[in-house]
Design goal:
With about 240 residues, the chain is an alpha+beta fold. About 25% of the residues lie in helices and about 30% in strands. It binds biotin (BTN).
């Protein structure tokens, strides 16, 4: 496995995107990022102590592209399984489409990007970093909760090793098992939410389960509607 380590970088995803030739599971790890990116153009604050890394998954020609549509969900599933192995006895939850929450706060975010025939899987985990100020209302780190100090690289390599196993599990026909697991950890289930749509509009409803195609079901005025993308906010 080819590994690039940086004390500081703009973004580990951007680095891999700009790398002309990449190997499967080539990985970039950074102590800090000065332009860490989240989904929908959001900034991902990347202070020292967090785990910031990206790795490459090559698209396989014998696998239908539709299979890859659920990749972010499979990454989320895999991350949850890794967190469980840390044996902290915490109730990690999955917030569709690909955030991990614990105690109603975001602990980890995933950014999957396509770059020619490669997928770049970027993961940020609030691990040893302390979250303070305004952000502490929405996010937390593992260390904020457990008061422990984690070995960042050890966690990163566990995440990647588990992902290798779980992507094979998924591609060998176990989507239903993965979906059941994600629905069992569905942070949004039965919560009143608002979803931001691509056209700038917003819809309000009650979040239900993730359906077989990986879409989120939201009950709006008593009718179940499906959403394939969109940022979800919990209504106050
Ligand atoms: C999100 O919550 O919207 C996704 C956040 C993803 C952050 C990670 S940190 C490592 C990798 N490099 C980036 O610039 N982003 C991802």
């Amino acid at each position: 496995m080819k590994i690039h380590r940086f004390k500081e970088i703009n973004s580990t995803n951007t680095f891999l995107k700009e790398l002309p030739k990449k190997e499967e599971y080539e990985v970039v790890i950074a102590t800090t990022q000065n332009s860490g990116r989240g989904r929908r153009g959001n900034l991902w604050t990347s202070e020292e102590g967090g785990a910031y890394f990206s790795f490459v998954l090559k698209e396989k020609s014998d696998i239908d592209i539709s299979q890859y549509m659920k990749l972010p969900l499979v990454v989320g599933y895999s991350l949850l399984r890794t967190f469980e192995k840390l044996e902290e006895n915490l109730d990690f939850k999955f917030k569709w489409t690909n955030d991990i929450y614990v105690n109603d706060k975001k602990i980890s975010g995933i950014l999957v990007e396509k770059n020619r025939e490669d997928f770049i899987i970027g993961i940020g985990i609030n691990l040893n970093n302390k979250i303070t100020g305004e952000v502490a209302a929405k996010g937390c780190s593992l260390s904020d909760i457990t008061k422990k100090e984690y070995n960042i690289e050890e966690v990163i390599f566990k995440v990647i090793e588990d992902f290798k196993e779980n992507i094979n599990y998924y591609l060998s026909g176990n989507w239903n098992e993965i979906l059941d697991y994600l629905n069992g950890k569905n942070y949004l289930l039965n919560k009143a939410i608002k979803i931001d749509l691509r056209n700038g509009n917003q819809k309000s409803g009650v979040a239900k389960e993730i359906d077989n195609s990986g879409e989120m079901i939201i009950e709006i005025d008593g009718k179940r509607e499906m959403f394939s993308i969109g940022e979800i906010h919990i209504s106050k």
